[in-house]
Amino acid sequence: MFESRLSPEPAAEVLAALAPLGELKIERPVPLRRTYFDTFDWRLHRAGRALALERTAPGKAQVCLRGLADNRLLGHAATPAAPMPRFARELPPGPLRRDLESIVEMRALLPVARVRLSVQHAALRDEQGKTVLRLAVEHGLGGTGDGRCDRVLPARVRLDPVKGYRKALRRAQAVLDAELKLPPTGQLLDEVLTAIGREAEDYAARPTAALHPDLPAGEAVRRILLTLLEMMQRNIEGVRAATDTEFLHDFRIAVRRTRSLLSQLKSVFPPALPERFRPDFKWLGELTGPMRDLDVYLLKLPAYQEMLPREMQRDLQPLQAYLEKRSAAAQRELVRQLRSARLRKLIEEWRLFLAADFDPADWPAEAALPADDVARRRTWKAYRKLLRDGHAITPASPAAALHKLRIDCKKFRYLVEFFQPLYPPGELRGIIKALKALQDNLGEFQDLEVQAEALKRFAREMDAEKAGLPGETFMAMGVLIDSLYKRQARARKDFAALFTRFARPKNQARCRALFRPGGKKQAAA
Q1: Most buried residue, 280, 326, 394, 442, by most Cβ within 10 Å?
Q2: What digits encode the pLDDT tens for the residues 182-200?
Q3: pLDDT tens for residues 354-408?
Q4: Measured at the alpha carbon of residue 447, what is the angle toward residues 442 and 452, in degrees to the nearest 5?
Q5: What is the distance between the alpha carbons of residues 345 and 350, in angstroms, rounded to a whole number?
Q6: CA-angle at 479, arms to 474 and 484, nearest 5°
Q7: At a CB cut-off of 8 Å and minimum separation 6, what does 49 contact?
Q8: 379 close to 229: Cβ distance less than 8 angstroms
Q9: Cβ 179 vs Cβ 29: under 8 Å
């Protein structure tokens, strides 16, 4: 495939230039309406994909997945002209749905851009009347995903080779290059985004602040906290609208990391500032907890059903109805609180503090130290505590010891990720990979216990709220609870090997070189 931009009168120019190469069979121009979709965090674009709902006639539409680099069609499925399914799981079963689900997972598909095109198709034939090249000339307007198409887009020509006739493609390319001086095009989606003032991949679930080793520590933490505040504010409307569950997830991550930074680096901040804001961020974490828990249980229901014998899987339907009812009530309360004066005041005062330029006179002496020195000292301290607590765990240790170690892991990982720009690229990859495996194990161990206890509570509440629920439902929940405890026991057995892998000498040496005060600078000398 070959694409280039054209002047405002594209079709006539292209056809006139290619006419000497053979007979051109020209079709009538057809309209094309295309709406591009992606997740809020651009999962498709990051994976090199462009998803669009294409309408070529009233009542006729198809969902198309194309490669960003070459516009190659990777999959398609017919669908009603409107509306576009909100989630990949709502598409017709087939390869396209499977491919999309593997990339976007639980995230909603949101409109990001629209185009209205006129497409002129033609075919170039040789002396024997065989088609040796197909081409299309497109021109039209672009706009936002939910607005009007009012931006003129550069026209483009697309040459599609016919198998066995690559020579015809090369000749056509040469003619168009020589006579029309066509510049190459980019992906149409990216060009539309540029035209409407947007940029693809303008949101990341784990944003990084611009840091360098000699930056004052106070300025470094100010920048980190500002990126976290922006992450909260970018997600808050999606939380209110319940667009998908990941808005709340990312919002809570930003809140949790803010609380962690205020706690772990409190000596860097101006006196009394952590205590001033900590209660409000704690309130925000507690406020969003019930809704997130219900989101998790609803997302896990299909997996819960698969843990049961086939004949018992439908017996969990009353549990789903109960969770959906609770979720709707929790969402209403969450929205009410997210519109409260308390939250508005918190965000306004927090942004006012973070927006002020760093002035060492208003901060403790530690804040004026190089960020590299403070980061390494704090991270090394967190790492040593993690190792000490992990080595102390034995098969006889209570569950609380593993829960405590999980918190150690979070604190260490937050510090590593906060200051990641200060470390050589790639140096952290192996450490984070081993840490993530350990965290997944500890998280599974705790979550399975929490889920089992929650299911017990749900059973009691369902029984109290609605007498006469089928006994099969409670029996299925009992079987499920037993399965969760068995999985927790397996996770406990896996812990030792995963901690040993994380704490192996190679990783300890790497952490010592990166984080121990003086270690990294000496290693780099």
Answers
A1: 442
A2: 766 678 899 899 999 999 9
A3: 999 889 998 999 999 999 999 999 999 999 999 999 999 999 999 999 999 999 9
A4: 135
A5: 8
A6: 120
A7: 65, 66, 67, 68, 74, 103
A8: no
A9: no
User: Which tokens sit at 56?
Assistant: 């070529």
Q: Which of 287, 295, 289 is nearest to 242 (CA)?
A: 295
User: Which of these, 280, 242, 33, lies nearest to 140 by C-alpha position?
Assistant: 33
Residue 90: φ, ψ to 5°: -90, -5
Q: Is-above-0.70 flag for pTM?
A: yes
From 224, 217, 211, 225, select the one nearest 373 (Cα to Cα): 217
Helix (H, G, I), strand (E, B) or coil at 16: helix
Structurally, at CATH architecture level, domain 2-195 sits in Beta Barrel (2.40)
In terms of Cβ atoms closer than 10 Å to its own Cβ (0-12, 13-18, 19+), residue 518 is exposed
* Among 133, 135, 125, residue whose Cα is nearest residue 162: 133
Query: 160: helix, coil or strand?
Result: strand
Instruction: Give CA torsion, residues 219, 220, 221, 224, to 10 deg.
Output: 120
Q: Which CATH code of 1.10.285.10, 3.40.50.20, 1.40.20.10, 3.50.50.60 fits the domain covering 370-525?
A: 1.40.20.10
Give yes or no on whether 205-366 and 370-525 have one common fold: yes
The fold of the 205-366 domain, in CATH, is CHAD domain (1.40.20)
